[in-house]
Amino acid sequence: MDFGRISRRHLLQGSAALALGSTLGIRGAAAAETTVGFIYVGSRDDYGYNQAHAQGAAAVKKLPGIKVVEEEKVAETDAVEKTIESMVNLDGATLLFPTSFGYYNPHVVKMATKFPKLHFEHCGGLWSDKDPKNAGSYFGYIDEAQYISGIVAGYSTKSGKLGFVAAKPIPQVLRNINAFTLGARLANPKATTQVIFTGDWSMPVKEAEATNSLIDQGVDVLTCHVDGPKTMVENAARRGAMVCGYHVNQSPLAPKAYLTGAEWNWEALYPKFVKMITAGEAIPNFYRGGLKEEIVKVSPYGEMVSAEARKHADDVKAKFMSGEYTIFKGPLVDNKGKTVIASGTDRGQQDPELEKMDYLVEGVIGATA
Amino acid sequence: MADASLGLWTVPLAVFGGAIRVSTPFLFVSLGECITERSGRINLGLEGTLVMGAMSAYGISYLSGSPWLGVLAAGITGALFGALHAGICSLPRVNDIAVGIALMLLGTGLAFFLGKPLIEPTAARLPAIDFGWWSDIPQVRAALRINVLFLIGVAIAPLLYWAFRSTRWGLLIRTAGESADAARAMGHSVLLIRLRATMVGGFLAGIGGSFLSLFYPGSWNEGLSSGQGITAVALVIFARWDPMLCLWASLAFGGAAALGPALQSVGITSGYHLFNAAPYILTLAIMIITCSPKRTLTGAPAELSITR
What we know:
- The complex is a heterodimer.
- Chain A is α/β, with parallel strands linked by helices.
- In chain A, strand 14 (332-333) and strand 15 form a beta hairpin.
- Chain A folds into 2 domains: 3-140, Rossmann fold; 143-263 and 297-324, Response regulator (Rossmann fold, 3-Layer(aba) Sandwich).
- In chain A, helix 5 (143-156) runs parallel beside helix 6 (171-187) and helix 7 runs parallel beside helix 8.
- Chain A is built from 10 helices and 17 strands.
- Helices cover 68% and strands 2% of the residues of chain B.
- Chain B has helices at 10-38, 46-64, 67-89, 96-115, 138-143, 148-166, 168-178, 180-185, 190-214, 228-238, 243-265, 272-276, 278-290, and strands spanning 128-130, 145-147.
- In chain B, strands 1-2 form a two-stranded antiparallel sheet.
- Chain B is globular, with a radius of gyration of 20 Å.
- The chains are: A alpha/beta, B mainly alpha.
- Chain A binds chain B through residues 42-43, 45-47, 73, 159, 161, 194-199, 202-210, 212-218, 228, 230-231, 234-235, 238-239, 253, 365-367, 369, and chain B through 4-6, 10, 13-14, 17-18, 21-22, 112, 116-117, 119-120, 122, 139, 142, 212, 216-219, 221-224, 226, 228, 257-258, 260-262, 264-267, 269-270, 272-273, 276.
């Protein structure tokens, strides 16, 4: 937010736009210019989580009659409330995307109650019936893309050892590790995934050390779930290992080592949301989806991915696209030998049990605590 | 190629490799701080200097294509920050610790601000020298890919040890640090000596930063330092202001940082938070073992604001 630019004229313009928006409603405002606000927790060119959202914002910018305002490095504290207030009052934003998990409760909920005419779309949060109706949460089943990465990794590894640099053992991360491993074992039933937890979302030295340790153990394909995969991708490529990316396409960083990757597809979803709002349609408060719903996508395959791997991965991708594939289905055993999903049970993506995942499946070397 | 897996042997190897890879920034910052503190001043701002150095090295290397120019730029940036610290501290009744904290915030903030466009591009990296040519084991070869900056740092430590004992300027720095009055009586400007010592300290810290962004982990981002500069300043205290001990302490810290990931990679997964905390536990343990209520810290320059 450039506070140097705020003048009385801006203030008047802002409140006029707001008044217009609130008297005419969203449908009326669409005739004029609609302002959409994006808020990021980190830097928007981090080759990771925030860049994925910023690419979505860039796609929204291309729509006619839409103005986009952005602010990066907004902490998950009441700082986000101040940002929202200034976006609403000064820029006249009517649709807001606070994109970080920790923004939701209490901050987004509070702001949505305060500005009942505006729309808030939060990434990752769990909207519940008690929350304001003008707030919503969306998230993607990126484990589907990780599963495809796993298949490619399973075909590409020579040692049968895969590596996963993870931040913290929370359900979302564990789900990615498990999906990646299950995919790899589809291609190579003997494949194992060695996981290293660094303890936090952005620890470049630890991530580099973890990458080196994994490669020292004979791991030859690595992936990760940290905020900025750049460190892992670059260090693995320097050691001659192959990588699968995460969040966005990191192939420009290591074109020779990049197999594929699990990416967010916000540039498909965000323009869709904006069009729905400007057309006066309601976005479901709880919005989820995977490859089929175009919320996640798989990076284009690297040159060294074999024809066999491509075919298998494309087959499974096609099944995801038609909605007839389940990743987590019984019998599923964890790496301590305990059955976590009984035979005959299919846990589809919407299953709330998956959001509570606290185990690592058979084939993962590592522990959740 | 030998067997791809070394099993448990990876742990000592990773700690050894980690000691070399991770220790360099600690080494440069602690040697720099050693010079500054020996002259009687504490510069806590070296965390900011380290981050500024990392950012400017990356930026210059990216723009010019020469990583060595980047290292030089980092050093100069560090020296300027040192000069700023010393300049403010030469005003009467200014507390060097408070100024240091202010400069730490300024350095990190400024580096994040100026470094914004540098997160995405990839800059030219510093080369590594392959000392592992004699081995067929890829892990050993990887651990022995050593950067020249590490070797320079290792060479500076004994040089500094010798210089403090046996050279004229070493004596001057120590005099300024032990008794400002004595230095003045000899006809030297204490402020000038401290200005130079702080600038040299900043220069070395800046170079330590260039190692982070140009060699290992090898790219610029905002979480790059995560407190290594501050740790290195603390390290000087438990190294008793002795450059050789700074070297061993830095190596121990580097090795300890590699311990957590290495243990997880061989399947020792319980309590990894504890292993990740190893460097800090090490600091606390050494501090507790070596401190005594009966005397001041041995080797502490008498003019330091913490001992005075």
